[in-house]
Batch of 2 targets.
Target 1
Amino acid sequence: MTKSTKTKAQTRQEIESQIENFIREQGEIEQVEMGASGLQDGKYNTSNMGFIEPKKERTPLNHIVAAIQQRKSDKKPAPIPSVKPRKPQKKVIYDDFGEPIRYVWED
């Protein structure tokens, strides 16, 4: 069983119908000035702002960072793979009709 999600158009239609029902039941929509709903007594409501608390002390972790850096530097670097000489490969030479004529070794 899959859950069907509402489209934006369906959500808009639902909100419109709720507004119409509210108005039909003698509800009244009050117009307010832009930005006025965020104000209390003409000022911003500072009780909801996140910078009210005093600054908290941070726990120093320098010794932990130093230990991690030490472990990183203690690791041996990965060995550089040696380059092996390539083996010669056998290549087929074909004629104009696609028939093999001879084999040639290429480096």
Note: The radius of gyration is 38 Å.
Target 2
Amino acid sequence: MPSIEIRRPHRLSAAEAHAVIDQVATRMREKFQVQTQWQNDSTLSFDRPGINGKIAIGGDEIQVSAQLGMLFSPLKGMIEQEIRRKLDEHFS
């Protein structure tokens, strides 16, 4: 099962980073029909058939990890590029 691991530094407070991830989660639910759930104040899990993962907020870093099923394996590069673009947009 292919996986995606991306880390991006940030300078936001925990509350600001949480709010940004909430916005991203809303967009993910609308665009990709994923289910999202905060596991605690710093980790958002997401899931849909063929993709599951989490977005973890650290003190100075955002970490995205995802596992792709067979259906999404050929799209790994495109998915990873979109995640990087969104992280750059919100955390650069």
Note: The radius of gyration is 12 Å.
